[in-house]
Each structure stands twice: as structure tokens, then as C-alpha cells.
Amino acid sequence: MANPFHVLKELLRLRRECADARKLVDQAPGDHAANAALAVALRALGEWERRTPFTQTAALKHYEEAVALYRKLDDPLTLAHTIRHLGLVHEDAGRLRDAEKNYDEALAIYRDHATVDTLDYANTVRYPAAIKERLGKAEESARLWEEACRRYEGVGIHAGVAEAAGRMTLFSLAADDRDAARAWLEKARDAAEKTGDAETNDFIAEVAGKINDGDRSK
């Protein structure tokens, strides 16, 4: 657990930085550099604020302001990243449909502007995949998880591959396609072993258990 005194100290520092950046914008409202600096400061503050329940309302306000600024700046991928994190604020508060809307917009911006695979692109696919799964949109979710798996493979993030392949295993089981489920599980296991992460391996073991349970019931 984070030290509360450290969190408070960091929040106060970031709020001072935001106040200083806002003064520069107030002095020169149309200055690109000043607005960009304020957007960066608001994003950093919002990211800290979303980590604790008593500052989540402030996080929403600051992320929304950062998004509004980035919409005026020529930096579409940073805009997409900020919109995705605004979605995280909504998801943390249980506003799943608001989060879905943000995640979908962030991904649409990436599709229009990204030219290469990056970890951020893979993450931008992962979040709508996960939220649509929570909302019961299985077909959309499965398509996105499959894409996320490819993109995580492309940037060598084994934990991302394991999670996405594990999810695809479960979707294949739900569709009663056991051959596909086993193929996805093999990929998930291979990736999980490379991570050395206990939580990831526990998830894949749980997924494997579901296949074994199904085999025993036949």
C-alpha cells in the first residue's frame, strides 16, 4: 500500500505545478506551449488523483480538462492516451458505459493515426476488449482480444499475450470449440511461463482448469 504521506505530498506538488501552468495560460491564452504544458500537468495530477477514492471526482474533472486541451493541440496519440485514462476514471467508479465510450474513441483515434505497433496501441485495444466483455458484448470483445493478442506479440509483451490468449480460450470454450480453446491455451501457457509472474500463471491455470472440467464432464 502506498504511503499516504507520500501520496499527499505528491498531490500537493502536482497541484502547484497545475496552478503555475494555468497562470501561464491565463497570461497567454492562445500560446500553444503554455496550453500543452497545462495539459501535461493536468494529466499527471489526474493520474495520481484517480488512485485514491477521495480524489476520484477531482481526477474526472482534471482528465476532462486535459482532454479538452488536447483536442485543440496537434497530438492525436497523446489525446487518445488521455481519453483512455479518462475511461479508467469512469471504470473505477463503475460507469462502464461511459468508460466504453472513451475506450472506443481512443481506439478510433489510434486506428486513424498510429503507423506502427506499440505497447500503448496494444493497451488501447485491450481496454475496450475487457469492458465489452464486462458488458456482455461477447462477439465484439472476442474480436478485440484476438487483435490485442497479436499486438502484444508484436511488441513482445508476454503478460499481454497470456491474458488475451487466456480470454480467447474462454470465448472458444463458450462457443464449444474445444480445438480452438486448446490452441489458445497452449499460446497462453507459453506466454505466461515467459513472464515469471505468479498472478498471470494463476489466471492461466484457472483457465486450464475450465478445459479439464469440461473434459471430465464428457
Structure description:
It is a single chain. The chain has 10 helices and no strands. Helix 9 packs antiparallel against helix 10 (198-217). By secondary structure, it is an all-alpha fold. The protein folds into 3 domains: 1-64; 74-149, Tetratricopeptide repeat domain (Serine Threonine Protein Phosphatase 5, Tetratricopeptide repeat), CATH 1.25.40.10; 157-218. The model has no long low-confidence stretch (mean pLDDT 93). Helices cover 83% and strands 0% of the residues. It starts with a helix and ends with a helix.
Short description:
This protein has ten helices and no strands.
The helix fraction, in percent, is: over 70%
Order of helices and strands: HHHHHHHHHH
Main CATH class of the largest domain: Mainly Alpha
Residue ranges: pLDDT <50 for 5 or more in a row? Answer: none
Tell me the count of domains. 3
The CATH topology annotation of the largest domain reads as Serine Threonine Protein Phosphatase 5, Tetratricopeptide repeat
Question: Can you name the CATH architecture of the largest domain?
Answer: Alpha Horseshoe
- Average pLDDT number: 93
Number of helices: 10
Radius of gyration: 20 Å
Q: How many strand segments?
A: 0
Terminal CA distance: 45 Å
CATH H-level superfamily title of the largest domain: Tetratricopeptide repeat domain
Characterize the biggest β-sheet. Answer: none
> Which range does the strand content fall in?
under 5%
